[in-house]
Automatic annotation (TrEMBL):
SUPFAM superfamilies: (Trans)glycosidases, Copper amine oxidase, domain N. This is Glycosyl hydrolase-like 10 domain-containing protein. Keywords: Signal. The keyword Heme does not apply. Residues 188-505 form the Glycosyl hydrolase-like domain. It comes from the Bacteria. The keyword Protein biosynthesis does not apply.
Length: 552
């Protein structure tokens, strides 16, 4: 009897073995690649590193991508050449040289099974190819030329950098879209393009190279359009300087490396035309009151506001600001905006949240005494009135000249906390637009001084201090019954960032936020910060997740 029980038990174990080992036998599907429909193979299978970067053998680069490849064993450096592009990647070094310009990498060269392995997305995009990743099939599609693929699956287990000097795609004949207003489909699909510190465009390696800057911008637009974006918000006044020929401001140093130096072309004219050729809206983004990103004036041009009008400048937190309390200073800023409105076919004028700087002393006692004709008792109320006058007057000037130009502002996402003001949001933010930046956004909305508001709600759906959903709820109520559209500013830059918590370690956070926006007809779309974080860094295939969402 015991023997029979033992045999029966063994039989049960044997019958269960296939089930128990099925998971172990089902090894991960091997990564496959293709270039323009042709399968690519190397002598070592591709793999994904712990930092989420896909590595391939250099034989695939030389044979599949038809690039020149050489390996220096003593320096452990691989050199890849194709056309005018020269890439150098060294084992153990988290930077690459792209035409002698240093570019940061998550992963450089690795040696596996005696083979030299390189990051496929970085190399491919530097050589002018588009890269798509299908998570379900673990398949990488490389596309050359100027075609605009429509990926349906999450893309990219790599972190690329901006491609250099690809061919400029032929202009599109598509008309500029007319975006519907409140209560319609989520029409606005915008992306901020930062020029300050050369964050999104132009690259530092393109300084003074007009053709290269045009090529980079064309590629950036094509990538954004391929994802589904229909508008760009481009920073044309990053620090009291300009990306267009101005009679009031110096040329931006981010074009040539030197403030005041002519880049040899009109970047704004090119960018507006390039966006419209692709059927995309172009909104000129102005940082109104920042005069310089540091306290030094040595590198500023002679016609910089900090040198031409030093009495207008306040040094706050080792940065230079134009004092909003001086009416003449405010008017000159408005004049710089009107240069663009009058001179260019822009679809909109956009202001960011840089009004008064928060959490720093701002020395404006003298201005408070000298420029207070209304006799406002509280300095805080006086500061808010200064910004209110600026917002109101600028809107009037824009609409008097070109009524069709959309005028909007992206304030800090928390107007006021409910603990301070019962009509504020259910948040506990350490800073608020009203109390710290002196931005009385509620008044701008209720008075219809602006056409849209795009609060920067840069927090997750689970961040209790300032939850995304609670803030969307609050802003929806603010625009109810007005003619002001509501776009939501979203933090694409946080996705996959090493300093962010688990909720941002997936592109699904942004998708879930977009789905939450669908609850309200008042939410007429969103603007995402920043362009390169979506289509260049592309963490966890964010760009293709967005494509799939926009097309569904």
């Amino acid at each position: 009897m015991n023997y029979r029980k033992w045999m029966l038990g063994m039989l049960v174990v044997l019958l269960c073995l296939p089930l128990g080992f099925s998971g172990a036998k089902a090894a991960a599907v091997q990564i496959t690649l293709e270039l323009d429909g042709t399968t690519l193979t190397g002598d070592v299978p591709p793999y994904i590193t712990s930092s989420n970067v896909t590595m391939v053998p250099i034989s695939l680069i030389s044979q599949g991508l038809k690039a020149g490849v050489s390996w220096n064993q003593s320096s452990k450096t691989v050199t890849i050449t194709r056309g005018e592009q020269i890439l150098k990647l060294t084992s153990g070094t988290k930077t690459a040289l792209v035409n002698e310009a240093s570019v940061a990498l998550d992963t450089s060269v690795q040696i596996k099974q005696g083979r030299v392995m390189v990051p496929i997305r970085f190399v491919s995009e530097q050589l002018g190819l588009q890269v798509l990743w299908n998570q379900a099939t673990r398949h990488i599609t490389l596309i050359s030329g100027s075609s605009e693929p429509q990926p349906q699956q999450p893309s990219g287990p790599d972190t690329p950098t901006l491609p250099e000097e690809p061919s400029v795609p032929e202009p599109s004949s598509q008309p500029v879209p007319t975006l519907p207003g409140n209560g319609t489909a989520k029409a606005m699909k915008g992306a901020w393009i930062s020029t300050v510190f050369n964050l999104d465009w132009p690259s530092t390696s393109s300084a003074g190279k007009a053709d290269k800057q045009k090529q980079e911008f064309a590629v950036l637009l094509d990538k954004l359009k391929a994802v589904g974006f229909n508008a760009v918000y481009v920073q044309v006044r990053p620090s009291a300087d300009s990306l267009y020929p101005s009679e009031l401001m110096p040329w931006s140093k981010f074009l040539t490396g030197t403030q005041g130096k002519n880049p040899g072309y009109d970047p704004l004219a090119y960018m507006v035309a390039a966006a419209h050729e692709r059927g995309m809206e172009f909104h000129a983004w102005f940082n109104p009151f920042r005069a310089a990103t540091d306290a030094s004036t040595s590198g500023l041009a002679s016609n910089s506001v900090a040198k031409a009008h030093p009495s207008w400048i306040v040094n706050a937190g080792s940065k230079l600001y134009i004092n909003p309390g001086i009416p003449e200073a405010r008017q000159e800023i408005m004049d710089t905006v009107m240069e663009v409105v009058k001179g260019y076919d822009v679809d909109g004028v956009h202001l960011d949240d840089y009004f008064y700087p928060s959490n720093v002393a701002f020395a404006d006692d003298a201005a408070y005494k000298a420029y207070n004709p209304k006799g406002i008792v509280s300095k805080g109320d006086w500061r808010r009135d200064n910004i209110n006058e600026f917002v109101r007057q600028l809107g009037e000037q824009i609409h008097n000249v070109k009524p069709s130009v959309s005028y909007g502002i992206s304030p800090f996402g928390v107007w006021r906390n409910s603990k301070v003001d019962s009509t504020g949001s259910d948040t506990k933010a350490g800073v608020s637009a009203y109390d710290d930046m002196y931005a009385d956004v509620r008044t701008w909305i209720k008075q219809d001084w602006i056409d849209y508001v795009a609060p920067q709600i840069y927090w997750s759906l689970s961040f209790e201090t300032a939850r995304y959903d609670k803030l969307v709820d609050w802003w929806v109520k603010e625009v109810e019954g007005t003619d002001v559209k509501l776009y939501i500013g979203q933090a694409a830059y946080k996705v996959g960032a090493s300093d962010q918590k688990a909720e941002w370690q997936s592109g699904q956070q942004i998708i879930n936020q977009l789905k939450y926006n669908e609850k309200y007809k008042e939410v007429a779309g969103s603007i995402m910060f920043r362009a390169n974080d979506i289509v260049v860094r592309d963490p966890f295939g964010l760009s293709s997740l967005l494509t799939f969402y926009f097309q569904s």
